[in-house]
Amino acid sequence: MSKVRLPVNKTHWTQHSDCAVVNAYYNRIENSIYFPAGILQGVYFNEGRPNYMNYGGIGCVITHEITHAFDIQGSQYNEHGILVNWWSNETKKAYNEKVKCVIEQFNNFKAEEINMQVNGENTLPENIADIGGIKNAYSAYEKILKEVGEEPNLPGLNYNNRQMFWLAAGTAGCAKLRNEALKLEILTDEHAPRKFRVWGLVTNMPEFARDFNCSKTSKMNPDKKCNLW
After folding, report:
1. 210-211-214 Cα angle (round to 5)
2. Contact 222, 157 (CB under 8 A)
3. What is the spatial distance between Cα 219 and Cα 29, in angstroms, rounded to a whole number?
4. Cβ atoms 145, 216 nearer than 8 A
5. Active-site entry in 71, 126, 130, 211
6. Distance spanning both ends of the chain, measured CA to CA
C-alpha cells in the first residue's frame, strides 16, 4: 500500500524475478526485454561453444525479443511504452502490405497428422518476431565470422560454420508433441507449432538456401519469401 500513487518503478526486482524460467520476454509497457538465467544454458548458450551455436541459439532469442517491439502489437507503443501512433502513414501502409505475406504463408501450413491448418492471424506477432529475429541474428553472426574467422566443426558433423548456425537455430526450436497437445497448441497458442516456426524461419531466408545449396525447386527455397525489413 505504501507504493500507491507513487511513480511506477519499472526496474524494481519484483517485476523481474523469474530467474529460473527457460524463456525470454518482451514487455511492450516497459519497452524492455527479459532474459532469465534459466535460458542462458542448454541448447541456447554456453560461453565455451563455437559462435555459430550461440548465435543460432540465444542470438535468435535475443533478436526475436527485440523484433517484438516492431511486430503488429509492439509497433503501437513508443519507446516509453506508451500506446501512441509513432509511424508515418506511408510506413504503416507498406508494413501492413508486407504483413499479409506472413499471414498467408502460415495459413498455408498444415499439421497433416491432425488435419489442421495453422492460424496465420493468431500467430502473427510471434511469426514476425521469428522472421525478423533470425535475419538479424544471422547478420550479426556473419559480422563476427568475418572478425574471428572459421571455427572448428563439431566432431562427427560435416557442416561448415554457416550451416551450423542454421542447425543450432533449428535445434533450439524443435519439439515433439502428442497429437492432442499439437491440436491444443494450434487452437490456443500465440505461437505456431515448432515445426512450422522453424520452417517459416529458414524458408524466408535466401541465405539459408545459399548456405545449403537448395535448388529452386526445393520446398526449402520457395519463390515467394516474406521479408518485412
Report:
1. 55
2. no
3. 39
4. no
5. 130
6. 46
Specify the 3-state DSSP secondary structure of 211.
helix
**Domain 43-211: what homologous superfamily?**
Collagenase (Catalytic Domain) (3.40.390.10)
Residues for the chain: how many in total?
229
| Phi, psi for residue 116 in degrees, rounded to 5 | -130, 140
Q: How far is CA 202 from the centre of its chain?
A: 11
Domains of the chain, by residue range, sit at 43-211
Confirm if 161 and 50 have CB atoms less than 8 A apart.
Answer: yes
Distance CA 191, CA 119 (A): 9
Verify whether residue 65 is a known catalytic residue.
Answer: yes
> pTM, whole model, 2 decimals?
0.91
- Catalytic position from the list 65, 71, 185, 211: 65
Q: Is 140 within 8 Å of 70 (Cβ atoms)?
A: no
User: Consecutive 10-residue runs of the chain (229 residues): their mean pLDDT?
Assistant: 85 78 91 91 94 97 96 94 94 95 96 96 96 96 95 93 96 91 96 93 95 94 91
How many Å apart are CA 68 and CA 159, to the nearest integer? 31
Active site residue 211: no
- Residues 6+ positions from 148 with CB-CB distance below 8 Å: 51
> What phi-psi label fits residue 177: left (phi over 0), alpha (psi between -120 and 50 degrees) or beta?
beta
